[in-house]
Specification:
This protein is of the alpha+beta class. It contains seven helices and 16 strands.
């Protein structure tokens, strides 16, 4: 049976606690960050100044791993009584193990024990609701950040909590998905338990077993899992000391597995994704160029039609002039005197000049029409060449896919379905 709690306080907090009278069951001492600590037989607590040594930073107290519990004191939020209340609960659960209650969770989390970065409103009757962080791993491929995290039908994401675990050596924990998510087909997978002494990120894989997309709005404080705490029958001499100790972000935790177990698969998927994006961009550029050529061809077709219309109009005019000239000659020969014939000859000469000018214009229109038709043929050849390039790119991509995976084409883009 444990009768006393050894409470060592960060020396930077000396001014706050030096004159405070602690109860007899707390054995008080002050410890500097570079001092070593020799643990006695009693249950030990280290109270750190959260301003100097927050859990979610790289700053560490030299002897913190020698203690059973590490607490975090915030001058803006805590007082000396919070330390006393927490020590009282720790003494209580050491001597009467079980599932932690609302009051016990509340007293411990006030100074960062069990859960660091706590939201007091999330404490339940005998558990705590974890808030969703905005960082997540999508389908085992890419790390992303978003205020809304979506899980596609039959897809999955790896997510983390905003809170961090900070478990004493005599407390373990486990967590599972909230009921409202379970009823909508969301399943949670994590380790069998959080080991005593673990400090760091709380992660989970969420799988969508339904046929509908599931959205979680992180910015609204989305609660995705419930965690329970269990006291061991006695403090464990062997605490968690694995590779994930004090890793506080999803990226830090996942990277080692992505590098070892998924590196080849992920690299192949990323390569195919990059190739798909590159091909999609090339296809878009070619489509744009074909569209420009089609617009030019349409413009030329309109110009040719206009010129042909003008050509027909001038041919009618010339024909009419020639007809009128013939009628005039016949009339002159029959009815007119020499002076009138002379005047008419002058008029006819002027008409002939107009006819020659009209013929020149017709010839010019014929040359322009011929040039436009040549341009039209050139643009059609360019479009055919672009289409051939597109076919070559498509064949190369299909060959690459046959070597690396299966890709399904959707319009001008490709999607990995392997």
């Amino acid at each position: 049976m444990i009768e006393k709690i050894e409470c060592s306080i960060d020396a930077s907090l000396n001014d706050i606690f030096s004159d405070f009278q602690f109860p007899d069951f707390i054995k008080l001492s002050f410890l500097r960050s570079n001092e070593s600590y020799s643990k006695e037989n009693n249950y030990s607590v280290l109270v750190l100044n959260d301003k100097n040594f927050p859990l979610n930073s790289n700053k560490r107290f030299r002897s913190e791993e020698s203690f059973d519990v590490i607490a975090y004191y915030r001058s803006s939020d805590n007082n000396q009584g919070d330390i006393v209340d927490a020590c009282k609960v720790l003494l209580e659960i050491c001597n009467a193990p079980g599932v932690l209650s609302f009051e016990q969770i509340e007293a411990l989390t006030k100074i960062g024990i069990l859960i660091y970065n706590v939201n007091c409103k999330n404490i339940q009757y005998a558990s705590y609701d974890l808030n969703l962080h905005n960082e997540y791993l999508k389908s085992g491929v890419s790390m992303e950040k978003s205020d809304t995290i979506s899980i596609e039908p039959f897809g999955y994401v790896v997510v983390g909590a905003k809170e961090y675990a900070n478990l004493p050596t005599n407390i373990c924990a486990n967590y599972d998905v909230k009921v409202h998510m379970f009823c909508r087909g969301i399943m949670l997978s994590s380790g069998p338990q959080i080991d005593p002494g673990y400090r760091g990120a709380l992660l989970a894989l969420l799988f969508n077993a339904s046929s509908k997309q599931f959205d979680m709005e992180q910015y609204k404080g989305y609660e995705f899992a419930t965690i329970q705490f269990f006291t061991l029958s006695s403090p464990s001499k062997k605490r968690y000391s694995g590779n994930n100790l004090l890793k506080i972000s999803l990226g830090q935790y996942i990277r080692q597995y992505a590098d070892e177990a998924m590196s080849k698969k992920v690299a192949t998927i990323i390569t195919l994704k990059d190739a798909t994006d590159s091909l999609g961009n090339k296809v878009k550029k070619i489509d744009t160029r074909i569209g420009v050529q089609d617009t030019k061809l349409a413009s030329h077709d309109t110009s040719i039609a206009n010129l042909e219309g003008k050509h027909t109009k001038w041919m009618i005019i010339v024909t009419c002039i020639i007809g009128l000239t013939a009628i005039l000659y016949a009339a002159i020969a029959t009815f007119s005197d020499n002076s009138k014939i002379y005047d008419l000859g002058v008029y006819i000469g002027t008409s002939q000049e107009k006819i020659n000018s009209a013929n020149n214009m017709i010839h010019d229109l014929e040359l322009r029409t011929k040039k436009l038709k040549e341009d039209q043929y050139t643009y059609k050849s360019k479009v055919q060449n672009l289409q051939k390039q597109l076919e070559i790119i498509d064949l190369k991509f299909k060959k690459k896919v046959s070597e690396n995976g299966t890709v399904e084409k959707k319009g001008s883009s490709y999607t990995d379905v392997s």
